[in-house]
Amino acid sequence: MGNNWTEENLISLRERVYIHIKDLILEGEFKTGDRLVERELAERLNISRTPIREALFRLESQGFVKTVPRKGVIVADISEKEIIEVFTILSSLEVLAAKLAAQKLDEETKSKFNAHIKKIEDGLASENEADFSHLHGELNHLLYSSAKNTKLYEILSGLSDYISAFAKTGFKNPGRAVQSMEEHLKIMEAIVNQEIEMAEFLTKIHIENSKKAYIEAVQQAKEKRKG
């Protein structure tokens, strides 16, 4: 995401600011204990302080930052252990979503999967990795909704901020974006063929690979800043 900030669409701007600051925290540019000053962030992004304030409030409600007396807003301690815990949760829930999607597959949902399989194949053929982050979100939404389980959908959607940030960071590793799309392709083909155990297995492998890619990308970013 570039820093061409405008306030023409305030709703879009609020979301973009929130995602941008959250990504910088998850990627380690803003480290534990760093102060996040509204004025400085507003100057950095060339926007007013209002969307900054709203983003920080939202991030605090999710535990990314906290308000400390006489210090203001600082980055909370998000440990590698906590991040791995999120991936552990994702592994279990996404495997369940894949299983239910395969079990409950109907013609309408099958058509949607086939359309997205074509999207992935076209993307891989064109090697346009710039579109993969957006496509990743589409694929997850399709998987979650196809499970036809309201509570599961709500829980996974609640983790979507983590999921998109993890994927975006992991995609910085050379080849990971393509590998991720190839993994999604195999998962979706297994679901379309209603190969339930294969869909579960492939989903579990995908989450494990995503975890490794994210951790490697964060470690590389830390080493780069030290150098």
- Characterize the biggest β-sheet: 2 strands, antiparallel
Please provide the count of β strands: 2
Our estimate of the beta-strand percent is under 5%
- Measured between the Cα atoms of the first and last residue, the distance is 25 Å
Nearest-angstrom radius of gyration? 19 Å
Oligomer: single chain
SS-derived structural category: mainly alpha
Low-confidence stretches: none
Total helices: the number is 10
Shape: elongated
> In order across it, which strands form the biggest sheet?
1-2
* Mean pLDDT across every amino acid position: 87
Order of helices and strands: HHHEEHHHHHHH
Helix content: over 70%
Structural commentary:
The protein is mainly alpha-helical and 227 residues long. The protein has 10 helices and 2 strands; from the N terminus they run αααββααααααα. The protein has a two-stranded antiparallel ribbon. A hairpin with a 3-residue loop joins strand 1 (65-68) and strand 2 (72-75). Helix 4 (80-103) runs antiparallel to helix 10 (196-226) and helix 5 packs antiparallel against helix 9.
Topology:
Blueprint: H1 10-26, H2 38-45, H3 49-61, E1 65-68, E2 72-75, H4 80-103, H5 107-126, H6 132-146, H7 150-158, H8 160-170, H9 176-192, H10 196-226
Antiparallel strand pairs: 1-2
Helix pairs in contact: 1-3, 1-8, 4-6, 4-9, 4-10, 5-6, 5-9, 6-9, 8-10, 9-10
